[in-house]
Design a protein that fits this description.
Elements: H1 8-25, H2 30-52, H3 58-75, H4 80-87, H5 91-95, H6 102-130, H7 135-138
Helix pairs in contact: 1-2, 2-3, 2-6, 3-6
Length: 145
């Protein structure tokens, strides 16, 4: 079964919404904020991958997003993201600055969770549409009499 393409407009809305939610999640104290922000960052990567390839399977999007997340985290070992953030402060939001090993796991788990949710969306949509009442059924019958 071939998946219908995802709506690029819908994906763009989700990405735009994930940015402030992810930034707000980072405000949670301690590890909770780091993990929540990392999970949402990984979800955003999945949605960005879906924007590029709207017909791709969810598992493929998750794998690519996980690889990107891990790659970005490993790039932090080079010091390049930190140096770039000195010149362009907004780069810190995209590339981070400091390598943290647990973030590797967060990137993989976040991408897997987002891919799982993405795979459920068409099923939930189909289920919702199959349970919607027909127009003929929603109009009350008039009593004859």
């Amino acid at each position: 079964m071939t998946r219908a393409p995802r709506s690029r407009a819908g994906l763009a809305v989700v990405v735009v919404l994930l940015v402030p939610v992810g930034l707000a999640a980072r405000l949670l104290p301690g590890t909770a904020g780091d993990v929540a922000g990392g999970l949402l960052y990984a979800a955003m990567l999945v949605m960005l991958c879906a924007l590029v390839a709207p017909r791709a399977r969810s598992v493929t999007l998750g794998a690519v997003a996980a690889a990107l997340g891990v790659g970005i985290e490993l790039l932090q070992l080079t010091g390049l993201p930190a140096a770039l953030a000195e010149t362009i402060p907004a780069a810190r939001y995209v590339l981070g600055s400091t390598f943290v090993a647990p973030d590797l796991v967060v990137a993989i788990v976040g991408a897997a969770l987002a891919a799982a949710v993405d795979s459920l969306v068409p099923r939930l949509r189909a289920r919702t549409h199959s349970h919607a009442p027909d127009a003929a059924q929603s109009v009350p019958r008039q009593r004859q009499g």
